[in-house]
């Protein structure tokens, strides 16, 4: 079974770009563009990896990470933050304590991000 990835980004174009690229790589991907549906999606899908935008309306990525860290069923899911928030790299140590593998700032190199995903959860083609 292919590794499951949940993409959470309020920008539909970025969510679709990531969804398409990861699908082509062989991952089983789902996406949400609404932060209020994120945590339910995490609990329903039990993804192997989450690509999470920080700057989302209502609940931002920090709020979502805190919610995940409080639930034993979601606390150990690896997260890659994909954000336009330029100060996010300075918070990387705090994010790592909440399960974040890496902080990737937008605009990002798609090939480098795909490589990071493979390093984190493996290559579905192998």
How would you describe this structure to a colleague?
The structure is a single chain. The radius of gyration is 13 Å and the shape is globular. The chain has helices at residues 12-25, 35-45, 61-70, 92-96, 110-121; strands at residues 4-8, 28-32, 49-52, 79-83, 100-105. With 126 residues, it is α/β, with parallel strands linked by helices. Helices cover 41% and strands 20% of the residues. The chain has a single domain (4-121), classed as Rossmann fold, CATH 3.40.50.
Q: What is the residue-mean pLDDT, rounded to a whole number?
A: 92
CATH level-two architecture:
3-Layer(aba) Sandwich
> Which radius of gyration do the C-alpha atoms yield?
13 Å
- Major sheet strand order: 2-1-3-4-5
In total, the number of strands is 5
| The CATH topology | Rossmann fold
Supply the number of structural domains.
Answer: 1
Number of helices: 5
Q: Which overall shape is indicated by the principal axes computed on the Cα atoms? A: globular
Question: In percent, how much strand structure appears in the residues?
Answer: 15-25%
Unreliable stretches (pLDDT < 50, length at least 5) are none
Q: How much helix, percentage-wise, in residues?
A: 40-55%
**Main structural class:** alpha/beta
Largest sheet: 5 strands, parallel
Assigned CATH superfamily: Response regulator
Give the topology string: H per helix, E per strand.
Answer: EHEHEHEHEH
Q: How far do the termini sit from each other?
A: 12 Å
CATH class call = Alpha Beta
